[in-house]
């Protein structure tokens, strides 16, 4: 098991941020590796027990953090670790 605790949102936090934070933790733990396709927004909404709009906003938050990239008609994928890529480019 990855060690990511189950999803348990705090009542004082925005729900979309809680979902985004949980998915980010799954990415950090390697449960969702680089280039892995995230479930669709409907599937995420069902998995987390939230409205589809909440799931959509969580994915948007992950894009803003640079953790995922959405390719139209393909899906949303875990982004490469850009800090590693930047470090390698700087060394060259």
UniProtKB/TrEMBL annotation:
Residues 13-81 form the HTH gntR-type domain. Keywords: DNA-binding, Transcription, Transcription regulation. Pfam families: GntR. It comes from the Bacteria. InterPro entries: Bact_HTH_transcr_reg (IPR050679), Tscrpt_reg_HTH_GntR (IPR000524), WH-like_DNA-bd_sf (IPR036388), WH_DNA-bd_sf (IPR036390). GO terms for molecular function: DNA binding; DNA-binding transcription factor activity. This is Transcriptional regulator, GntR family. It comes from Thermomonospora curvata (strain ATCC 19995 / DSM 43183 / JCM 3096 / KCTC 9072 / NBRC 15933 / NCIMB 10081 / Henssen B9). PROSITE patterns: HTH_GNTR. GO terms for biological process: negative regulation of DNA-templated transcription. Gene3D superfamilies: Winged helix-like DNA-binding domain superfamily/Winged helix DNA-binding domain (1.10.10.10).
